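From the pipeline queue, job 12 of 40. The input is one protein chain; the requested action is below.

Action: predict structure.
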Amino acid sequence: MVRVVAVANQKGGVGKTTTAVNVAASLAQGGERVLLVDMDPQANASSGLGIDPRRVASGTYEVLLEGVPIAHAFRRTAVPNLTVVPAGPDLAGAEIELVGREGRETLLRQALEAEKDRFGLVLIDCPPSLGLLTVNALVAAEGVLIPIQCEYYALEGVSQLLNALQRVKQGLNPELMVLGILLTMFDGRTNLALQVADQVKRAFRGRVLRHAVPRNVRLSEAPSHGLPIGLYDGRSRGAEIYAEVAKEVLVRARGATPLG
């Protein structure tokens, strides 16, 4: 069983935070107790759930670098069953401060150890890089969910990420596995999107989730209201697809036969 999932891709703009927020919220709306850890200094997962990063007294920075117990950083959200460890402004300097720390790659794993069993699933939103914050997330996680935008360079980016995951697996976290690959910003009206989807499915047979997230205006609007798509517009196509994606993620996390 996978209990901790990192949502990662070193490329920006692929729907990573959108995926982390909406999978977490969809699972919580379905009755799962979910913890979302915002490891991105941009703090978009926090603001997308109605938390002002400028008013975060205890967040991921304080947990990693000041030894604050992670439970002290828990924040409730508008979604019942969904708890967030938010990111604050100080997290932007964490990469530099972590360099000299002993055991710098395992700080998040240690922080989560005492609390993760309280939740059905822990999701970690990673920054768009392969720095120490992302490494902390990958060391803490058992599975990785990789969003891929349906664009020309998609496969190149994923190959680089998989190489990095292999290095983390060999050196720091032998339990790490790819939970699934999620196609995002899919537009079935374009040949490019269809070609990229076909290439990804052939290259990563069995790892690609069955549902692809479409381009959707309501998905783009929801973060500005501090709400996941399920609360902002539960009838939208984006909400429907993320509800299905969340079910697939849970099936894979619980060890059932993978889909895709």
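Job complete. The chain has a mean pLDDT of 92.
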